[in-house]
Each structure stands twice: as C-alpha cells, then as structure tokens.
Write a structure and sequence with these properties.
single chain; mainly beta; Jelly Rolls; globular
C-alpha cells in the first residue's frame, strides 16, 4: 500500500506561512558583510531553508532561538549544501559545521548557543571566519 507522507515543509507551504517574507538584517563577520533572513519564530526556524534550490552570494539565514542551550540542525528537505555556525549570546562563533543536502544527520552546537547562522557551504572558510570570532550587528529583541 502506497502511503503519502506530508512533510513539515509541505504543510507550512500549504498553510501560506512560507509566503510571508522574513525580516532582513546585515551582519558583519571578519570584515565581510552578510545579508540574512531572520528566522525568529518556531515556525520560521522549522521551515528554515527547506526547499530552497539557490542562495545568493553573501546571503544566509540567521536562526534566533528562544533560549541558550545546545541546538542542532539537519538538512531534511533542503537541497543546498550549507555551512552553519552556532553563536553564543554575545554573537561569538562557537563552532562551524558543514551539512550535506537531504541529510537527516544532526549537527549540534559545541556549547549553549542562542543563534545559528546558515550560509552556502564554504562561505565561512572563504571569508576566514573561525570559532572565537565575533559576529557584529546581530538583531536585538
């Protein structure tokens, strides 16, 4: 018997939530400017970059979590290869992980994090961004 599975991304797309544009911000990392969409609600964070087939140069998504603790990302329904940096409450890079398309492997923060930042895979390396560096101009509540 064939069963149809509706993913969270599909459900959110059907509900119209995905059509709402996310707030935008400009961050500075190691002297480079990065434009980001800000995913601050539970629904926005769950959808993330799912289903996106392109991400423009110097663009990414900033995830603002509700609390500072260990957070994890996975790549279900995400066709892009991404790198993610986990940031503490002050915006300091804790660790950077590379993630492969459509992979359910969890990639977690090394310590308690308040932010996650996803960019095209290799962006951090190309711009010399490493753990311990500060991300400037994070959106405030």
């Amino acid at each position: 018997m064939l069963r149809k599975t509706i993913t969270l991304a599909t459900a959110l797309l059907c509900s119209g939530l995905a059509a709402e544009p996310l707030p935008q911000a400009l961050l500075q990392l190691n002297g480079h400017v990065l434009g980001v969409e800000v995913a601050a609600t539970r629904e926005q964070r769950q959808l993330g970059l799912m289903g996106r087939e392109q991400l423009a140069k110097d663009r990414g998504m900033l995830f603002v979590f509700d609390d500072s603790r260990q957070h994890c990302f996975w790549m279900r329904d995400t066709p892009l290869a991404l790198s993610a940096a986990f940031l503490d409450e002050q915006g300091r890079v804790l660790n950077i992980v590379d993630m492969q398309p459509f992979d359910d492997t969890e990639h977690c923060s090394a310590q308690a994090s308040l932010y996650g930042l996803e960019v095209p895979q290799g962006w951090f390396a190309e711009h010399g961004v490493r753990p311990g560096q500060q991300v400037e101009q994070l959106p405030q509540d």
